[in-house]
Design a protein that fits this description.
The chain is an alpha/beta fold and 254 residues long. The protein is built from 7 helices and 10 strands. Helices cover 29% and strands 21% of the residues. A hairpin with a 5-residue loop joins strand 3 and strand 4. It binds adenosine-5'-diphosphate, magnesium ion and zinc ion. The site of adenosine-5'-diphosphate has 17 residues, from helix 1, strand 9 and strand 10.
Length: 254
């Protein structure tokens, strides 16, 4: 069974760029005006439930369908295989076919309630089976949010190339870990030269590449200490999150 519910992918092809942190933040803001289903597509190393601070497990109803966890009642529901057993991190070595079946289960065998306005999919690294299963099962892909770092242009190029090959519109690019802030939230500036500190380098190709490809650039988020413990990106560094949520909502209304 496929779904025609508008679907937004949070993707990056590369691992560790912040897709999951962004998915959490975007879903919570979207849930203020939409009924959102968020799905952890990273089946091998799922960490979305931990990032969302969910300790509850996903249960089965009487007809043995998964009940997604209600993160915010009637607003935000989470499906993650990572919280089916909730026995902490485990290693998995499934085949692509097994992962495809699990992704189908998130649709076919899950009690979403029939009133979800939008699915947000936290994509894993890579562009193989999980990505293929995504486009096969979610037939109304509204667009992609791309998470990237200022380090290399290769992964961003791959995202542009992949989405264009599959006719997925890019809703916006968020540059993560560009610059740094200290524990109290102020910009880290060099004492000697007075310039802001960019741990991954000042020279970033991201904005220029977005201009070149005609893709909306949503802004940069600095490295924020303790984001691991409280993964909510706060003012003023949440501007790219607000921008992308506005873009999702505006384009859904068109
Ligand atoms: N802006 C940031 N500042 C500091 N740490 C971050 C930031 N963004 C992500 N991280 C950390 O980087 C790691 C990878 O983030 P994650 O969202 O899991 O990436 P991905 O889903 O792309 O693999 C996590 O430990 C996360 O806490
Ligand atoms: Mg992730
Ligand atoms: Zn400070």
């Amino acid at each position: 069974m496929t779904t025609n519910v508008p679907t937004v992918l949070v993707m990056g092809i590369k691992g560790g760029v912040g897709k999951t942190i962004l998915s959490n933040n975007i879903s919570r803001l979207l849930a203020k005006s939409k009924k959102v289903g968020i799905i952890d597509m990273d089946l091998d190393s799922s960490n979305l439930s931990r990032v969302m601070d969910i300790t509850e497990t996903m249960k089965l109803n009487k007809s043995r369908k998964f009940i997604p966890v209600h993160v915010i009642d009637n607003k935000l529901k989470l499906f993650s295989m990572g919280i089916f057993t909730n026995s902490g991190p485990q290693s998995y070595s499934r085949t692509g076919d097994q992962n495809r079946i699990l992704i189908q289960q998130a649709l076919d065998n899950t009690e979403w309630g029939g009133d979800i306005d939008l699915f947000l999919l936290d994509q894993p690294a890579g562009s193989g089976d999980e990505f293929r299963a995504t486009i096969e099962n979610f037939t109304n892909i509204h667009g992609a949010v791309i998470a990237t770092q200022p380090t290399t242009s290769d992964d961003l190029y791959r995202c542009f190339d992949l989405t264009s090959r599959f006719f997925i519109p890019i809703l916006g690019v968020i540059q993560n870990m560009h610059g740094a802030v200290c524990e109290c939230g102020c910009k880290v500036v060099c004492k000697k030269c007075n310039k802001p500190y960019f741990p991954l380098g000042t020279e970033s190709p991201v904005e220029e590449m977005c201009t070149e490809w005609g893709v909306p650039y949503m802004g940069a988020i600095p490295m924020i200490p303790k984001l691991k413990e409280s993964p909510i990106i706060k003012h003023p560094y949440n501007k790219p999150i607000k921008n992308i949520v506005k873009m999702i909502l505006d384009t859904m209304e068109e």
